[in-house]
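Question (not urgent): is this output format expected?
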Amino acid sequence: MQIDLTAKVALVTGASSGIGFAIAKRLIESGATVVITGRKQDAIEEAAAALGEDCIPLVADVTQASEMDGVVRRIQQTLGKLDIVVANAGVGANAPLGEIDDEKFEKVIGTNLKGALNTVQSALPMLRPGASIVLIGSTGSFEAPSTMSVYGATKAGLRAFAKTWIKDIEGRGIRINVVSPGAIDTPSLRDALGGNGNSAINALNERSPIGRIGTPEEVANVVAFFASDAASYINGEELYVDGGLKV
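Got this back:
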């Protein structure tokens, strides 16, 4: 299916690498102008240089509502509209029950859950009928691995957000959906696996019903669909991009 996002303006958080970068790239390829955010200036500017002239980088921390308000003001001043919001920024801080301290809890909750809330609330006044909000969840929302309970809880929270938010904005013509990847071959996944990366990736490949883990581009394709008018009657749904693992 050809996705046409010509003249659309999109915001993608956490887009300096991995899934967020792939989403921004796919939206640009489909015709959108994309504003990307990240906390590290060097990383977000490097990503923008790779994405080309239709990408605008803005340094912002999604855990700070004031910073996301600032991002939206910049979009209003420079582009005048906002059609697509992708709340992608996310982190993990693994710890088993009994070792979950305040720092780990606040880090994960603040970025994954509060960050999505800040992003959407800041953007909402600019959104008009036909706009699309996509929250990036995870298959960890229904079956998180050991030590990832807080991460899984935040991703389950995004599902709850979407189901309720579509009622809160009923009648405005704005859609909210969740795209939940399974194991995706990203730098962050390989960093999390550490020195055991290749054997762990092989184990994940073997668990998959289609024999491999996913790519960031495969997630980005689904996000582009949800962002487009091709998905104009899909609202409040969660789609798992996991090669059938959830089955």
